[in-house]
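Re: that backbone. Tokens:
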């Protein structure tokens, strides 16, 4: 079983959400996005838009994908 990675990101506009969802969609593993008590599939554009913009989001995933990692680094927060 792979180790679950947890990181914090913030998406500020709809273009950033689209880029994030596209990168997540290319992954062959599940990616959860958590905000308060809501847990959304990162590959769902509607779910991601539902969470809203400019919020601190926690992402959890257990796979490796270089493109997805690059995208996460762009939107990472401390």
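Recovered sequence:
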């Amino acid at each position: 079983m792979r180790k679950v990675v947890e990181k914090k990101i913030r998406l500020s506009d709809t273009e950033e959400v689209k880029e994030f969802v596209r990168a997540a969609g290319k992954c062959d593993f599940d990616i959860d996005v958590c905000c308060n008590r809501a847990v959304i599939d990162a590959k769902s554009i509607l779910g991601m838009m539902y969470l809203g913009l400019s919020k601190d989001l926690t992402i959890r995933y257990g796979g490796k994908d270089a493109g997805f990692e690059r995208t996460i680094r762009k939107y990472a927060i401390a």
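The first strand starts at residue 5 and ends at 10. The chain is about 35% helix and 25% strand.
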